[in-house]
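Input set for joint prediction.
Command: fold jointly, output tokens.
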Amino acid sequence: MYIIGIDIGGMSVKGGIVNENGDILFKLSVGTKATSDYKIIVSDIVELINKLLSISNKDVGDIEGIGFGIPGTIDSKRGVIVYSNNINFVDVPIVEAMHEYYPNVKVAINNDANAAALGETKFGLAKDVKNLIFVTLGTGVGTGIIIDGKLFEGNGSAGAEGGHTVICVDGERCSCGRRGCFEAYASATALVRQTKAAIDKNPKTRMISLANQKGKISGRTAFLAAAEGDKAAREVVDKYIQYVGEGIVNLANIFRPELILIGGGISNEGDALILPLQEFMDKKCYGMINGNPRVLVQKASLTNDAGILGAASLIL
Amino acid sequence: MYIIGIDIGGMSVKGGIVNENGDILFKLSVGTKATSDYKIIVSDIVELINKLLSISNKDVGDIEGIGFGIPGTIDSKRGVIVYSNNINFVDVPIVEAMHEYYPNVKVAINNDANAAALGETKFGLAKDVKNLIFVTLGTGVGTGIIIDGKLFEGNGSAGAEGGHTVICVDGERCSCGRRGCFEAYASATALVRQTKAAIDKNPKTRMISLANQKGKISGRTAFLAAAEGDKAAREVVDKYIQYVGEGIVNLANIFRPELILIGGGISNEGDALILPLQEFMDKKCYGMINGNPRVLVQKASLTNDAGILGAASLIL
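tokens >
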């Protein structure tokens, strides 16, 4: 059985041909013409799919289906991209558009964080996990929620927006129009802002030379300087971990999953991020005194291929 | 068909005999011996049930089941009260204890907010609603969550603790050990604290004479004074409504229910609370620009009998 997984991002569209074990046989990518008409993007995707079929010596009839992971608000039932922040997608009937090219192939779409969560349960670390929250710490904060083995999307696929829950009333402005969202404190974007503010206040911090070496302040700057013993950087990292911690404990108190997986760029900090998050969870999660099941926090397992495998898992 | 619904509270145990339409035929109550051994409380409950059967001329064989709504952490599957804040209940096997008295009767237990949520879908305003969040604004803040017509309790019945999600990082201390929980800002207890703080700062506010008339500051004080045009009270009420609003928009962004019902003592403020909450929801809920379904906010419908009817609904 073969599936094609397509991971649409603001910068590039990545595609892979995947078997039932989650092995990626071949993968390709193409730049996203983010400001173009959606039909142009669709035609680029079709070309990508045809190339994947060709290099793997497969015919469209060999394919079980094509899954799409897409950032933004996705109506998975109607097969429509309702809205995507970074790409010119507004009410795009992408499933219908794909069926014009591949009339007899199953096509499934979902939000990229939802797809990544499902991917972890099909091909990754969460294979035996029934209740999972997947949190991506990237440009924004996305959350994918698995309840009893199934993707939970909310009424009209419009829920599961854990990044847009306020953790600091009247706090930092968020792209969604509110103030103080989890995303506005726990995204890579937010960490860069927090790092900048600390640099402005601490003219001798190691973060400055590290940022100069790399030519910019990134989500890594504070973590690297903290690892070298820089006090201002340690404060940034500790506070950032608290923000992430508050958000994931909130989700744990609502869903009480067995596992929370952390993905996205910041998750590459590994133990320096994950271990203190687990400690925070153990200390703060509601009613832990009463022998309630512990909520584990781990790094997402599919890393670079999470997008393709998540998209592919939508077909299973 | 007849059901007995038992609503256990810190002050009293209320019981009612209910038919399939949610009519309460008879109801009785007894003081809760909150600090006594659970077996004494159970024996008081059995006496209450026997009285209900007797005054309604029913036999235990006429009863479909007995449902219990209980504040605290309830393991509904095992039939155990894991922990209750206000009553001396720790790991109480209450279903087993009831079966000693009524061996052949179905007994179901759940958290009181969960039971109230279910009650609204069986007997109240939410009869045709598939996805509901019930929020009680009382001594604490409880949340009951209905997904696709079914009660959602989280893994091990340990979830659905929406009152214990932080909305103000490093904010007011909460009974759960964290700082800044929704409960610490949106409960009646919190509103009283906010009202006291405003009185301390405004020696001429109408809230003082209103509190003196009643002999205490209550959750009503600020609402009453605001309705009379008192500026300091209006500020308290507006800020309180924002706190409630932030919490319910957070839940809406995660679950995107059709309806959010507000219960508990503060819900008796009616339109003065509900209308601005609806306005807040319409303005702040994620992605409303894209024709996503609107989330309605209404006052809970079962009011005084919500506890008994919620408990009874657990049997259906």
